[in-house]
Specification:
Elements (H helix, E strand, L loop, with lengths): L1 E5 L9 E5 L2 E5 L2 H18 L9 E10 L6 H8 L11 H11 L11 E11 L3 E8 L8
Length: 143
């Protein structure tokens, strides 16, 4: 199963704590909620209802960042060729976390079913995140 989420990659934000009277309450940042909803909508639109239910899954994520307009032509070419890769925020683990959490109960029952993952950061003309989810077949692991 493959699908894409358009726009700049976004990472999972940390919960915010606020004081309300004598109580402390945690809430998820609006940007995180919005991006998780976008991931869900794109999955539903592109997956045709495909789900992995209780299966073990492998997830591959490629986060494509837009090339800054201020870059020189040679630097832009090098970035698009993969010679220069993004080292900017969001961190790679936060990109993984927002995608995995957004697909809970939709692509799979729980993200604990993900037994293998690969994530890369690249540059592209059109920023997006490409996600591939596949069932892990019985494999023989070597020591």
């Amino acid at each position: 199963m493959r699908f894409s989420v358009p726009g700049e990659p976004t990472g999972k934000g940390r919960p915010r704590i606020v004081n309300v009277g004598n109580r402390r309450m945690a809430f998820t940042p609006h940007k995180t909620v919005s991006y998780e909803n976008l991931v869900k909508l794109e999955y539903q639109a592109q997956s045709e209802g495909h789900t992995f239910a209780d299966k073990q899954v492998r997830m591959n994520i490629r986060a494509y960042y837009g090339v800054p307009k201020s870059d020189s032509r040679s630097k832009r070419t090098a970035k698009l060729a993969g010679l220069i890769r993004p080292t900017k925020k969001p961190d790679i683990d936060n990109v993984y976390k927002i995608i995995a959490d957004a697909l809970n109960g939709l692509a799979y029952n729980d993200d604990s079913q993900i037994v293998s993952a690969n994530i890369e950061k690249m540059y592209a003309e059109a920023p997006r995140v490409d996600i591939t989810i596949e069932e892990v077949q019985h494999e023989t692991l070597l020591d």
